[in-house]
Amino acid sequence: MGGLYVLEETKEIFYLNKCYQIGNIFIYLPMRVIAVRTLKEDWIAYPMAKQALLAWYEEAEEAEWDNPNQLKVQFRSASILSNKRVVFNIHGNAYRLIVDIEYRLRIVFIVWFGTHKKYDKIDAKKISYDKTN
Predict the structure, then answer these.
(1) How distant, in Å, are the alpha carbons of 46, 55, 120 from that of 62?
(2) What angle is formed at CA 118 by the lines to CA 120 and CA 110, rounded to 5 degrees?
(3) Which of 29, 100, 112, 20 is CA-nearest to residue 68?
(4) What secondary structure letter does DSSP report for 131?
(5) How many other β-carbons are positioned within 10 Å of the β-carbon of residue 41?
(6) Whole-model pTM?
(7) Does residue 20 contact residue 26 with C-beta atoms inside 8 Å?
(8) 3: phi then psi, degrees, rounded to nearest 5
(9) 117 HSE (CA, 13 A, CB side)
(10) What is the pLDDT of residues 63-85, one digit of tens each?
(11) Which of 41, 58, 89, 90 has the fewest CB atoms lying closer than 10 Å?
């Protein structure tokens, strides 16, 4: 995973980060956000948060986090609650987004989204996924 590689045909040297090799095929695996539909429902419910949620989504999809420390470099205001649970401040901290991240699998699961006021009434460490049909 990651490292310097040489294309035999052209002798071109390049660096692949977060890339897995299967035989002579290289697969790039950025983070994948699960439950995008939940995010869409959230920005319909909270239209003021739409652009901030879209910006967060685009950054998360392009991210290459292997652990919480790498995430904190990109999102300094994020709160790391455990090795996999993270709380992001959205739209100037008016909203909170709770996610679980499986770093090894490169998956971000949307757990909860709401106003800061509603966030103060929940236990962010214990809340479970919003299940949508």
Answers:
(1) 24, 11, 30
(2) 100
(3) 100
(4) P
(5) 15
(6) 0.78
(7) yes
(8) 135, 180
(9) 0
(10) 989 999 999 999 999 999 999 99
(11) 58
